[in-house]
Amino acid sequence: MNPLDLLADAAENLYPARMQMALSLGWHIVFACFGIAFPLITVFTEWQGYKRGDAALTELAHTWAKAMGVLFAAGAVSGTLLSFEMGILWPGLMDRFGEVFGFPFVLEGFAFFIEAIFVGVYLFGWNRLSPKAHMLSALPMILSGPAGAFFVVAANAWMNNPTGFRLDEQGRVTDAQPWAAMFGPSTWPQVTHMLLAAYMVTGFTIASVYAVGMLRGRRDRRHRLGLLIPLTFAAVLTPVQIGVGDWIANTVADNQPAKLAAMEGQYETTAGAPLSVGGLYYDDELHYALEIPNGLSLLIHHDPDGVVLGLEEFPVDQRPPVNVVHLAFDTMVGLGSALLLLAGWFGWTWWRKRRIPRTAWFLRAVAVSGVAAIVAMEAGWVTTEVGRQPWIVYGILRTADAVSPAPGLYLGFYAVVVIYVLLTGLTVFVLRRLAGSADTPAPQEVDAEPPEPGGGEVAVR
Amino acid sequence: MTLAEVVLGVMFVGLIAYGLFGGADFGAGIWDLLAGGTRRGARQRDLIEHSIAPVWEANHVWLIFVLVVLWTAFPGAFAAVVTTLYIPLTLAAFGMIARGAAFAFRKSISTLGMRRFLGASFALSSLVTPYFLGAVVGGVASGRVPAGIAAGDVITSWMNPTSALGGVLAVLVCAYLAAVFLCADAHREAAEDLADQFRARAIGTAVLTGLIGIAGLFVLRADAPLLFEGLTGRALPVVVLSVVAGVAAFVLLATRRYVPARLASALAVTAILVGWAVAQYPYLLLPEVTIEEAAGGRATLVAMLVALVGGSLILVPALVYLYVLFQRSQPDMSSTPSGPPSRSAPIS
Lengths: 461, 348
Description:
heterodimer; A: mainly alpha; two-stranded antiparallel sheet; 70% helix; B: mainly alpha; two-stranded antiparallel ribbon; 2 strands; disordered C terminus
């Protein structure tokens, strides 16, 4: 008998598999954000540098292009692992519904292909193509990132609101319509929310790097521009994101009332439901929360007395874990609001005085805004993913029934933890080096240009 | 041909592209591993880095493409394969992460210790990853993946004679392709000594691959009779084509005609893969699941075909542009010896 057979147990695999998927996705999504938004910010800067003949801008764009290359590589390898994990961890999902919702992944394959090709062209074309040809060659890269995000998020939206198929009496899929599946009710709100989040994450994060530099006394033009350009992208889109948040919350209320109830820790179905902030949910009730009377009804129905369904409407085994969802949601909203304030402060000062606020507190706020944006984005994904539980396909297939029963599967989780710890360390190390060497007058050119003279030789010299 | 067969055929074109382009990338990493000490191997490593830097990311998207087409058009068979063979697939994915990350980050790092560590993980993972992928092919081709989720043995499905053969052949073929491609790259950069070194390696690997291939037939006869029957029956012409192309490549290498040698080697490898497909036709999972049985619904297959045709219209020109751009930029790089050879251009 095979020793691993003793370990065969789908139930035992469920939790590690979920954690492995969460870790892999949560890691990848940060880099995906840069893949979506960084190209446009970089090429915009390159274009401005070209138009104004401003070497500082061009140099800034070149540094960003290199950073983009590093981030893209990290995103590409982590994305590869994800495509394996979809099948290895969740065969019950792919086996039964692959023909329904797998299709956007095929399109994403093409988008990713184009992105990989043109990131290569863009990096290697620096100084080799004419400036105009170079910026033109960036166009496919700028477009394919958001396109890829659309396809992947559309697949996720399908898991939240499955459409485009029928089930026969045995629960088998008949009449799969992949185009219809791709454009379910959650697709557009989720995609828009994600694209804006990507710009916020990228914009605030890059700005925060330069804010740190300015706090350390490097107030040159390069740092000011490095802060100003990405911060402007992020600040302009932050208020839009708040509006989109309202849209997506309404979509969730209509299609996934159990998720919405968990987001708010709402047990009883209530007219004029309050908006609850913080607190802890136990004994079928949210304790210690700050309540804004009628807030939730107002937000969801745009009517202070609207009726909001509570968790009591759903059988116990169909409720998501409330605390995780509620606190993740509050984290996202809280950080999003803080970023809105920061954007407002920046926007107001710029409008009145055409400069950034002079106080160091502004720089400190920008310095932490990158982390805040990333945490907000991750918290948003925790809200939507954990809020969908116990379902992997909402209302149809349970996550527990989709996980692979292969013996020993859970061991993969530990390996993935080790790999991602190493990969994170490496990525941070390389980015820090890149940031450091860009400041030096004669930067050691270590971009994606042709090979440096051999491994050891460089260091030996 | 049925709709399902057409879709599977397109997927197989992606698999061949992965075998050739991705395979040569792995092979380049294997030669990086075997290039010798830090100083002695420096020039070879340069050439290798040089050759694969701009194209490796694109080359590996082919695998993603194969996976997503399989899980959408043949979801049941996909689920069966990846669950039964999850161990070698997970290890291969880890290998790809180690390889990609190490290769990309190595450029940005100049400390010797770090570079050695990253260089070693790049090279080592280039060796083990194709082995695991070959072992997966061996498991499928020898009928060790039954229908159903995790229905097969998660150990013996990839630790068996056919998988071992598949893994070893995959490694050898990758090394062979890379050596042949690198010959022409070195030649173009007028590094004739390097070209000769890689030529010797290409010839050596070719002989070894041929010998193992012949020995492998006996392994298959004992371990995978259905596949053996197919290879020596219906697929025989394809197998013969592979042998002929292999011998031609050998002669072309011996006479230093590198560009035609590339084409002949690519043809030989393509024929091996096609031979496998023909041998197990019409089964997707030997010996019980046929292509038709495994296929998804008609609307899905049609959507897939539309996407594949439409996508290719964008993708193929983009790929050609990528390879042509780097080839053309070659001569005017005076200060920094450059770029990436178009080793794939003749084949694409």
